[in-house]
Amino acid sequence: MKCVLEGNGVKVFGKAVHALSRIGEELWLDPMVKGLALRSVNAAHSAYACFLFTPMFFQHYSLGSGSEPARETIKCKLVIKSVLPLFRCLTAIERNVERCQITISTPTDRVIIQFFCKHGITKTYSLRFQESEALQAEFASHLCPNVLKAPARLLSDMVLHFPVSLEEITLSATPLRFTLRNYHEAGNDHMKMMYTEMSLHPDEFDSFQVGADSDITFCLKELRGFLSFAESHCLPVSVHFAAAGKPVCFSMEDMVLEATVLLATLIDSENTGPSQPVGPPAPTSPRCADVAALPVVSHEGDSRESQNVPAVMELITSSQGSPIINPPALMHLLSSADDPHGLDVPDEASAMATPASTMICSLLFRALASEQEDDGCDVSLPVLACYSDTEDDLEGDYTRSPSL
Q: Taking the complete model, does pTM exceed 0.85, yes or no?
């Protein structure tokens, strides 16, 4: 096979190689009667791309090379990392390269790429290929109920608002709206993620046909290179898709080239869309719910000790302006035991206690006590920080403490 490109055609061919490098690590060259096809597929076989350059794209195109007979069954596979450096700097190629010749030699199993530059400079690259069957993805686009067609610039502007690190994107289509949003997995922390959603009216599209409402999720990395290629040629992009779990096809067509990207979509096994952010679940523990509703803390013990506590619910002004429970009285209350007729708290003190202070008391101390009561063992609560060494010192220090 031998083909020759001139002028801007070399740059276009290089952009196609760049777009295919986003798909997979291998490049298939498939010379056919209808043109030269460049194909690639990723390792998971979830993304496939094909660029077909018709014979009108080349200055010269023939399936035979020199004395070799024409063979339509030439199938070669290259490592794309060996081809990409040849077309890395497209600006320099456009400025310096006048003509490019690509030859596939089957006796030596090599692909020879020659750049004929200005001032008589010729660069020749010889790449060994592996003979392999060509890739061919089967997709019946005419059976898809949803068909959209829009300028490549419109879709590129929408994708531009999503971060480069985003891996997957969700497309939602209804007869009245087209939406793109980033995909959230159920196990991710949505408080640490940015949620982006963009919507378009059907009037923004050249053609908008939605036969069934669809929400599909696919990889965005493979699509970026295709949209960049289509935008540089100002070609409209057609989108064919159906329900979740079925492939989505992005394609564009011109007189001299055809390009197709086929992407797999995630299977939506739930009724609700997986890309909708889900808030943190509410606590379902019945113990927590009951404890938060408790207005008063009560423990088992001797009611005689409770008579020595002068002001259990004495309040101290906090720096934020909200009252809190006096810590010495609270520690003495926790160390004393519950009695059905003990701890006769005055009504005035109960009225002065705020709901916030009562709830803090319940959540911090009652939860541990209730667990021990459920286990059936009578274990006293450990005191982590004692106010004083003895009970007498506690009462003495407490009576000496001024009330605010």
A: no
